[in-house]
Amino acid sequence: MRFFEDEDFRVLTALEMAMRNHDVAPTALVERIAQLPRGGCRKRLQDLLKRKFIHHENTAYDGYSMKYAAYDFLALRALSKRGTVTGAGSRIGCGKESDIILVQDENGNDCVMKLQRLGRCSFRSVSRNRDYKGNGKTRRGESWFYLSRLAAQKEFAFMKMLYDEGFPVPKPIDHNRHVVVMELVKGTLLNHIQDMAGHEHKVYERCLALMVRLAEHGLIHGDFNEFNIMITDDFRVIMIDFPQMVSTDHRNAVELFDRDVQNLANFFSRRFRVETLLHPSLEKDVERTAALDRQAFASGFFTKKQQMELEAMLEEEVDKEEDEEDEEDETNDDTQEATTETSVAVKSRHEDPAKEAVKEDNAGDEEDGGEEDDTDSMSETDTIAETKRQRLNQVRRDVKDNPNLVGNGVINMEYVKKRMKSVVKRSEDREFNRNMHRNSQKGRAKERIQRELKNTKDFSLFD
Fold first, then answer.
1. Residue 131 has pLDDT above 60, yes or no
2. Which of 72, 174, 223, 260 is catalytic?
3. Which terminus has fewer CB within 10 Å in the chain: N or C?
4. Dihedral of the CA atoms 89, 90, 94, 97 (nearest 10)?
């Protein structure tokens, strides 16, 4: 990193941003994001290519892709600026998902740096075995760097939450991109221990107690085995590696919990000849006392979006019930009015016809007099005031609904400028995409001609 300049990291950052939507980032897009002087970006890309930090392709179009070494340098530069990592040592562990490296902080303390390595040939089924995106979403075009970043964020969140709750986990220090920095645990991996000097049952019971305690707080490790458990000198159990944790509300929670219990029992029975094996059950032996899965957004828990949808559905049900009650009340009122009308009609049938005629004449006179009084009471002043009030309300509604105007009807210049900038940017992006499409078409034509030349036999210029 000492031989890297700021422009090199600027180009790597631009390449990282361009690879969010491209497996191979176009060179023109990288140059546009980096915004270096003319020719400066291509020169930096060539230097990085010589050092084998990036990969170059020129098939459909000219572009570059980033390797994990470049992603490591970006994360290390950010951590070194914070003072979290000032020196790197040797690699002390390697797995199918990550590499473990010994590092030092600015105070000279030894720490552990974990670098996620999703996408290795040995573990490309990560989309089926790990729910890093949440809610069972699978990988659809996302780069392995993005999934590694999600895995690191998830592990750091779980580690910090469990450490604050008093669980035996390493102390989290910092994280950036796909890198997690934690304290160095002075212990031995359970898989490397051959003899416990008579403490096998104690360690086995402590492991099971830790699993049950996690389940009581709403979490299931999902990969609780001898490779993710460390034993200290005083036979304490330290839990590591938990980006695959799920909630006890997960649809496969019972299966995952039983699998962890069975794997642990098989290991202690095979390695240490433990005869008394325990098999706690998630449904019978676990009583939930906390909801850490909601705090850390563990896979399978009831999300905020789902909670809002449930509340909306409940409100709809309540509204439907109220509407039904209103309809029943209206029907009851209608029936009562109908019964009163029928009773009045029945009574009128038994009355004298002469009296009915007199009542009708009196009613007609009262209606005519009422209409005359109403027309006389409505003055022209009230009509004009009502018209003005309606117009004023309409203007206020128009101003409120129009984003180009503020509350008092003045033009909102900030919004207009923002809209103009977005229109100009959209036109520039459209022109840039059109040029990119033209370059890709040229690249495809070039690739087709090369393929035809390669497939042609006995080709000669003089035939």
1. no
2. 223
3. C
4. 30
